[in-house]
Automatic annotation (TrEMBL):
Residues 1-48 are annotated as: Disordered. The lineage of its organism: Eukaryota, Metazoa, Spiralia, Lophotrochozoa, Mollusca. This is Sulfhydryl light chain. CDD domains: EFh. Residues 80-115, 154-189, 190-225 form the EF-hand domain. GO terms for molecular function: calcium ion binding. Keywords: Calcium, Motor protein, Muscle protein, Myosin, Repeat. InterPro entries: Centrin_CML-like, EF-hand-dom_pair, EF_Hand_1_Ca_BS, EF_hand_dom. In molluscan muscle, calcium regulation is associated with myosin rather than with actin. Muscle myosin contains two types of light chains: the catalytic light chain, essential for ATPase activity, and the regulatory light chain, a calcium-binding protein responsible for Ca(2+) dependent binding and Ca(2+) dependent Mg-ATPase activity.
Amino acid sequence: MPGKKKGSKGKKKGKAKGKKSGKKSAETTGPVDPMAPAYVPPPPKPGERLIKLLTSHPVNEKEIHGYRVSTRILDSLTPQEIRDLRVVFDLFDTNADGYVGPPELRRAMKALGFKVSRDEARQIVQDGSLKGRGMLDFNEFLETVIDKQGDSRDIYDEILKGFQMFDYEKKGTISFRNLQHACEDAGIRFTERELEEMIEEADINGDGVIDQSEFIKIMLQTNLF
């Protein structure tokens, strides 16, 4: 009988101990929210989000003269060269859809002084057309010009030198007086009406003078270079 009492006492004591330790554990940890996340990251430092955005989304293209061009083009060509090459591109983009195919590319490259065969023109378009449309847009055309630079004499550069010879006043335009002066220096005789007609033919925007872009266009159209 005494043995039974001792056992029951031990049992009670054990129960009481368990309750006591359980209560202490609940007090230290507190109630657990089942909806709370397991880990909360610290807030980003000022400017950290911007840096992350810039590094994860690098800018490979920029806009110049209203055209989106790659950073490689900006590194290789000046804004003036890009604008003037746009004149050449538009001249050979006969249907004005913003693209040139192999035949148009070959003629444009020839006008710029680059020797390109028919097969080579087809290959350039095939390799250079990033979207696989079989034609080059202006950005791809510029990339092609950069790749071909130094391969042959630059007729484009010769045209610019010719323009500078006519631009006596260094205003970036050729006036009727400039044209008359150039003819006198060269010993060529033209009537005033003939000189006026030359200006009118090249003067696309109708401001009475020939700017650099208009000069390039008339030179390429007449095959004077």
